[in-house]
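Task 17 of the worksheet. Students: predict the tertiary structure of the chain below and write it out as structure tokens. Keep your answer in the requested format; marks are given for formatting as well as content.
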Amino acid sequence: MLHEPLLKVDLPGIRKVKSGKVREVFDLGDSFLFVATDRISAFDCIMPNGIPRKGEVLTQISHFWFDRSESIVANHRLAGPDDPLPKVLAPYAETLGRSSMIVNKAQPLAIECVVRGYLAGSGWKEYKASKTVCGIALPDGLLESSELPEPIFTPATKAETGHDLNIDFAAASRIVGAEIAEKCRALSLQLYSSARDYARQKGIIIADTKFEFGLIGDELVLIDEVLTPDSSRFWPAEGYRPGVGQPSYDKQFVRDYLETLDWDKTPPAPELPADVVEKSQAKYLEAYRLLTGKAL
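Model answer:
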């Protein structure tokens, strides 16, 4: 039995400062409330119906990785997954459930910190054309989904709509400053390598991921979501073989279904049928179970 998806969040009396493809951000005065909705987008279009519990999965996986990564870098989280909500939010506890997180007000950096450990997506397309990924030269002979000799840092600009744009490290340094860019690269590679090794033992390959960092005063901290199926490419380790595209734990069923339609990939997006919604939900929940060792 599927729950009703959480598609839109309004909290009367509490100012909403941002509504993205998935997240809604509210100003609590000395902190922000992040709410991960159950919205799902594909081909840069938000589907009219969502994936029930998807926001809960994203939030709880982020909590899991924030716990594991605190020894590497501080983060913006102010409250854990089982901490009570502030009094001002108590009336909305049922709506917010376990899909929300209270965080410090960090100033986000204007770059996405992408780490790639495997050859997929736009990286694979570029490699086929030039044997590079984001301008980084790679050895000959790699196949689609091949593991790279070592993870690479490939930053991107942030786009409010559409796709982020890949940039080289020099461009990232110009945007955020050389010292911050160096720190972001080192932390991103360390975070990815640690998570990749852990997840592989749990049956998941993290092919690539993107991190976001922000500043609280002069301190660089990890912000937003972390190592979720929405911000990463998760593949099942069982059955992995280079040379072909891999099944994944994210929007695979949604994309596959949409590709069968006579739809030009512009709004309005078509409604997703129940079986696609159920299969997608099952994949999100399975990712959480495998990573954490417990069902959500």
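Marker's comment: Residues 1-105 form a domain with the Phosphorylase Kinase; domain 1 fold (CATH 3.30.200.20). Residues 178-201 form the longest helix (24 residues).
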